[in-house]
Write a structure and sequence with these properties.
The complex is a heterodimer of chains A (358) and B (327). Chain A is 39% helix and 13% strand. Chain A has 14 helices and 11 strands. In chain A, the strands form 2 sheets. Chain A has an 8-stranded parallel β-sheet with strand order 1-9-8-6-5-4-3-2. The chains are: A alpha/beta (358), B alpha/beta (327). Chains A and B meet through α8, α9 and α14 of A and α8, α9 and β10 of B.
């Protein structure tokens, strides 16, 4: 028995487990598999055009009847500063030359638009059961439209102040994202990476501060961690890293290998890959230009000049410039189909809860 | 109500709750209060102030409850005679943190005391087990004061697995209430060690102003850094740094460590004066990420009771959690 059934009632999933939306590392296949296993499958839409999101969503709807979460980002748009971009490019020039690339050649701009009217129309059209946001929430008018379309709204908080803000601004569920989490920190009212609390310190503090259900995220990748999150007052967990090595994830072979070989302390928080702080396995770019640099252009412009380097290095089978986003639970990741993994995680958590509670 | 674990059996105590040996502020008063409430108080021998240690251990000589005494291992190595002073009052355990415990292990164990070793990674855990540790404390980076980078959720299960079938493990770092104790039992720990929560207790010798700041602090208001160590000319070995509340001094110097080192004599003088005056805009309030869970300064016994009651509710009144090892 789950000690807290609020999310099961709200989402109507079999388990209170959310498969984390991992933009760039997955598509509809992982959503389908995780949902078939009983989790809330989440489709990352932050890095794909609306047409692509519609296509993937419709495939999922055709294949399964389970609820679906569509995930978007809602960062404030910051125009690229040409001077900083040029300086950063200069810094990367030796890498370009090493890979036989022309640093002066024009580069395609990274497609990372925040949630907008067109995406909102898609939500209204396809009606996902849940919509989750990263970096706060979009404008109130858009939040209202998403809710009117019948979706439950979720977003992440990295400190208590953000959780209170999210609740006041319409979030139905809050994801408490601790420092252990892989990928981009959801922070939007603070920029202090060093002060981001760990998941298990953050979760009970958020639970005390808000009335809505709280999902624990960051470093949770096995039954013990799930059971512990419930003891802290969480109503569910969001799990990403554990799914990375599933056959349904879309990470390239060398990245898969780098994750399999990573040791306990191989993840770091960096801003040089995209301009926003994110946790991942240290690659050459992070080691040689960061992991944190005040010179990195604002999000998402830092990623733009990395595009050609990433593509050229990957052709050589190298992940020197590839995002290897992963959390501190990295070592617990397993190579098994996502549905099976979901059931194994839930089963282990339930066994733990049964063994340790009256 | 009690929560029995291999740790309570090992130390002969009622509740699996240990108070951290916070340097100089965890005096005999706090140690006895925690132990009298059924937990396990550990005197904060810290860096090793001989006069303070003698004064506080004398008060523990007649204690009718089991207690521990803690030291910073690398600092104790410079003044090993302090261990003899500690052992004369027959502590139930000596807790060593930050450094190789081996040189002290046989003396501690032959005096009849248990050896508790606090560790921050698997390598340190193996070193402690090799030295004959009877119990480990797995400390996550959420902890106040000195520590390392891996968080509680990461390090606790890793150390529990490594110590499985050998010794019990207590969890430390970011734990402030009964939910934390229950969660750590879920992770496989046999108990918890709390610093910040007991800092904000009546019996702790810390300054009232520091306790007030702990009660007022919220999430995201502490940070790990080396600036407070630099500011008091207190050089720690890698990989350790210290978590403190973010104050004016932290905002001024974090990210400018090299400049601080270049001006260290002026900064150190200013810092020493601030410490003496109890000016916590400059002096450190050493506290962990549990600060956001702490809003009052009750007697230590009440803290122990609240934690046990809350954890017991979550664990459904189960009397024996040794099933943790089998789950």
């Amino acid at each position: 028995m789950w000690p807290d059934r609020r999310l099961l009632d709200l989402f109507k999933t079999e388990f209170p487990i959310v498969q984390s939306p991992m933009a760039g590392a997955m598509d509809h296949e992982l959503v389908i598999a995780a949902a078939q296993g009983g989790a809330l499958g989440s489709l990352p839409c932050a890095m794909i055009p609306v047409e692509k999101a519609r296509e993937q969503f419709n495939i999922i709807r055709q294949r399964i009847s389970a609820p679906i979460n569509m995930n978007f980002s809602c960062q404030k748009v910051v125009e690229a500063d040409p001077a900083r971009m040029a300086e950063w490019k200069l810094r990367l020039a030796p890498f370009y030359r090493e890979l036989g690339l022309d640093p002066a050649a024009p580069v395609a701009v990274t497609d990372r638009a925040p949630f907008n009217a067109a995406m909102c129309e898609l939500v209204e059209e396809v009606k996902p059961e849940v919509v989750s946001f990263h970096y706060g929430l979009p404008d109130q008018a858009l939040v209202k439209r998403v809710k009117a379309a019948g979706a439950i709204v979720m977003s992440s908080a990295t400190i208590v102040r953000e959780a209170i803000w999210l609740e006041q601004n319409g979030a139905d569920v809050i994801i408490a994202q601790g420092a252990e989490a892989g990928g981009h920190r959801g922070m939007f009212l603070t920029e202090d990476i060093a002060a981001q609390p760990g998941t298990f310190a953050l979760v009970p503090q958020v639970v005390d501060a808000v009335k809505v259900p709280v999902i624990a995220a960051g470093g949770i990748a096995d039954g013990r961690g799930i059971a512990a999150a419930f003891a802290l007052g969480a109503a569910g967990v969001q799990i990403g890293t554990a799914y990375l090595r599933c056959p349904e994830s879309k990470i390239i072979a060398p990245a898969r290998q780098a994750l399999a070989q990573a040791s306990d302390d191989s993840t770091v928080i960096t801003n040089v890959m995209t301009g926003r702080p994110a946790r991942g396995v240290a690659n050459r770019m992070m080691r040689e230009a960061g992991p944190v640099s005040v010179d990195a252009p604002d999000f998402p412009h830092a990623a733009t000049s990395l595009g050609p380097l990433k593509a050229a290095a990957e052709k050589l089978g190298r992940v020197d410039f590839t995002n290897l986003w992963a959390g501190q639970g990295l070592r617990m990741g397993r190579e098994m189909p996502a549905a099976e993994l979901t059931r194994a995680l839930a089963g282990a958590a339930l066994a733990r809860l049964r063994a340790l509670t009256g | 109500m009690t929560i029995s674990t291999p740790l309570t059996t090992l130390l002969g105590i009622t509740h699996p709750i240990l108070s951290a040996p916070m340097d100089v502020i965890a005096g005999a008063r706090l140690t006895q209060a925690v132990s009298a409430a059924g937990g396990f108080g550990i005197l904060g021998g810290g860096y090793g102030d001989k006069a303070w240690l003698e004064q506080e251990t004398v008060k523990l000589r007649s204690a009718s409850v089991p207690f521990g005494i803690g030291f910073i291992t690398w600092s104790l190595a410079k003044r090993p005679e302090l261990l003899d002073i500690a052992l004369t009052v027959r502590p139930r355990a000596i807790m060593l943190s930050f450094g190789d415990p081996k040189p002290f292990a046989s003396k501690i164990k032959s005096a009849g005391a248990r050896l508790i070793c606090q560790v921050q990674d698997e390598g340190m855990a193996r070193q402690a087990l090799d030295a004959g540790a009877d119990m480990l404390v797995a400390q996550g980076s959420e902890a106040g004061g000195h520590g390392a980078s891996r968080t509680t959720i990461d390090i606790v299960p890793a150390i529990v697995d490594l110590a499985a079938g050998k010794v019990p493990v207590a969890a430390a770092g970011g734990i402030g209430d009964g939910r934390g104790l229950a969660a750590m039992i879920m992770l496989g720990a046999s108990g918890v060690l709390l610093g910040t929560r007991f800092y904000a207790s009546l019996e702790c010798e810390g300054a009232d102003e520091a306790k007030k700041r702990i009660c007022a602090a919220t999430s995201g208001s502490s940070v790990r850094s080396i600036i407070f160590d630099l500011s008091r000319n207190n050089v720690w070995p890698a990989p350790f740094n210290g978590r403190c509340l973010i104050n004016d001094h932290a905002r001024r110097w974090i990210g400018r460590e090299v400049e601080l080192m270049q001006n260290v004599s002026a900064v150190a003088a200013e810092y020493a004066a601030a410490r003496a005056a109890g000016n916590f805009d400059i002096a450190a309030v050493i506290a962990g990420e549990a600060v956001g869970l702490i809003h009052d300064v009750p007697p230590a016994a009440e803290i122990v009771e609240r934690i046990v009651t809350e954890a017991d509710q979550i664990l459904g009144g189960r009397r024996n959690s040794s099933a943790a090892a089998r789950a």
